Amino acid sequence: MAITTVRENGISTITLDRPENLNALDVEHLIELRAQLSRASADPEVGVIVLTGSGTKSFCVGADLTAPRSAEAGVAEAFGFDLESSGQRGLYIRLLDFAGLNLRKPAIAAVNGYCLGGGLELALQCDIIVASETASFGLPEVVVASLPGAGGVPNLLRAIPRAVAMHMLLTGERITAVRALEVGLASAIYPARSFAADVSALAARIAGNGPLAIQMVKMLAQQSASMAPAQAMQLTELAWGLLRDTEDRDEGRRAFAEKRTPKYAGR
Length: 267
What we know:
This protein is of the alpha/beta class. The chain contains 11 helices and 10 strands. α4 (118-124) packs across α5, α5 packs antiparallel against α6 (162-171) and α9 (211-224) runs antiparallel to α10 (229-244).
């Protein structure tokens, strides 16, 4: 299989395993990736999802433009198809959009190498992007007379300063891992030699926190982004109230007072 999943210690690591294609994804593998992300999100034993690429050269360079295509429908025709059918008939950009998956677990994009085109569009939909020192980022679609079709334009504009985003979008130029950290696209850079271990340590730190609280924080971050301040505060109050009376909240307070590691049960 070209998409592999390993679950260990509450961390589900999903690897794009097509190094011979720079981990580019054809329609078949995009469908499989969506399925594995959905399973990880629904698994009560999973606290954090890590998405990464096989090897050290590439995280993902987006859609596999060399893959053979089935008969394509016109956009107007394919628009009315279901997700998989429209993807198989030419609208594969729909398969790069994770919004419909409603992922409830935090997702880390562990970028090890090229993160280009649809690959960056995948990473931008994760909650955290961390980079190997060898990573580079770009949306080069305009160079081939296209555009990022899976939300790359608005998502990049939300992630980094507008001037930097527009420079990347209009030139198609790549930025280095260091530049990505400077502008806030990545939250950390790790040495290539210890990249996997450093990513695992970050994921473990998140997975060790209260699972209900982690999921609620993610929900709040997503839902409040487009709300007026008063609405965002009201949603925050409701979310806090839901957590207040949980067993995990009581356990967290006891563990803090007793200076020990908490044992959360997700209740």
